[in-house]
Write a structure and sequence with these properties.
The protein is an alpha/beta fold and 411 residues long. Helix content is 51%, strand content 7%.
Length: 411
């Protein structure tokens, strides 16, 4: 694609990056076939190719409008288009640039600004956990629209002492997962303990930055990235941990991009690159021990595995994850359109509920045809979103493995 950037963009870091990405696009349109929003809305401007044209026009000097902003907002950032693209267009990075530039030039309505600000601050607030516990205690009384956003609370169970293990890893503290589904972190610690690995959370580490980054606060997100690097760096530098383990693929995808987002920071660029080299999804850590665990697990369970977009398209870990689950004895059931987004996409399901619910129901319809006993996934957002529309249990796979191990230990 030929480009002619405006003077304000030409020669800048963002302009140079965007220009390189744009020039790789050959207009083939393969991306439209795998774009969830294009499938739902049927509008070329709600496809990757259409959004690429919009961003190109802005970078070449055309003034963006609220319509431009809306089309970029509607993108789920699932990156399915990147998996499909034969030219290697880094659409995800391009849409990040486009959103940042458009948001600087187009003022959002008061209602939209307020909703996004409140959502971001609420999810990052220390009051989120007690508010979630209150909501869970009153869940049966909540309106349906709100109730589906509040998962039932389950006991996280006792945690083992893991300091004696020779192998040690770090876990991300996160922001919403410890409050909404504390069983995921607890299960991760117990499963890793079962294979001889100690897992702990570094003091000072917090949200990965994804919430802020995708809610018009990219500078705050970068500050959160630096804070996590600072929290992890002493332990990484001393060689006390072999990996930083992620059990939410959305967080893992974001942390694996720290080196990209901090590449121009002279203080943090190399540290971020060293951190990224240690980041592993929990499936990557458990996979070499599947045979050991399988010997302690009961007979197989019919399961459908929904691979989050941040797992399969951002990180390319769908094959490894599915092989791990099969090796652990799950009878994985195939279903249609496994590559498509479920509609969760972080805060997307709150900001664009109609599209998100249609994608959710499409996904659940495809899964229902396989008649699984349980739906497994690897990201808290997908789990909560899918669970809101089905009576079939939706769990993180590590929770189910942990439950099976505990039952086996009890005889």
């Amino acid at each position: 694609m030929q480009t002619n950037l405006a003077s304000w963009a030409s020669g800048t870091d963002l302009g140079n990056e965007a220009d390189a990405i744009l020039r790789r696009c050959v207009h083939c349109g393969f991306c439209t076939a795998t774009c969830p929003t294009y499938q739902v809305l049927g509008d070329e401007l709600d496809s990757p190719r259409g959004r690429i044209y919009l961003i190109k026009q802005v970078l070449e000097g055309k003034e963006p409008t609220q319509s431009t902003q809306q089309h970029l907002d509607r993108c789920l950032t699932c990156r399915n288009c990147e998996t499909t693209c034969p030219s290697g267009v880094e659409y995800g990075h391009l849409v990040d640039i486009g959103r940042k530039i458009v948001d600087e030039r187009v003022e959002r309505s008061w209602g939209d600004r307020t909703r996004r600000t409140l959502l971001r601050k609420a999810m990052l607030s220390p009051m989120f956990a007690p508010a979630m516990r209150l909501g869970q205690s009153l869940r049966g009384l909540l309106p349906q629209a709100l109730r589906r956003k509040v998962p039932e609370r389950r006991d996280a169970g006792a945690l083992p002492q893991v300091g004696h293990h020779a192998r040690q890893v770090l876990m991300l503290a996160g922001c919403v997962q410890p409050a909404m589904m504390p069983t995921i972190d607890a299960a991760t610690i117990r499963v890793l303990d079962a294979v001889g690995i100690g897992a702990r959370i570094a003091p000072g580490a917090g949200c990965c930055g994804a919430v802020s980054f995708h809610l018009d606060a990219q500078d705050q997100a970068v500050a959160q990235m630096r804070a996590n690097v600072d929290a992890w760096w002493p332990l990484v530098q001393d060689g006390k941990v072999e990996a930083i383990v992620m059990n939410a693929s959305g967080c893992g995808a974001m942390v694996k991009e720290y080196a990209h987002h901090l590449r121009h920071d002279p203080v943090y660029a190399q540290k971020a690159a060293d951190i990224v080299a240690l980041v592993k999804d929990v499936a990557e850590i458990v996979a070499p021990h599947a045979e050991l665990l399988r010997a302690r697990l009961p007979a197989g369970m019919r399961a459908a595995f929904h691979p989050p977009c941040t797992l399969q398209h951002w990180q390319g870990l769908r094959p490894l994850s599915e092989q791990l689950l099969a090796d652990l004895g799950f009878e994985l059931q195939s279903f249609a359109d496994k590559h498509l987004c479920c509609g969760s996409a972080g805060a997307y399901s709150v900001l664009n509920p109609d599209i998100a619910l249609e994608l959710r129901d499409r996904k659940l319809g495809a899964i229902a045809a396989a008649s699984p006993d349980v739906i497994l996934s690897a990201n808290i957002g997908c789990i909560g979103h899918l669970q809101s529309g089905t009576d079939t249990p939706v769990r993180h796979w590590v929770e189910v493995v942990d439950e099976q191990l505990r039952r086996a230990a009890q005889g």
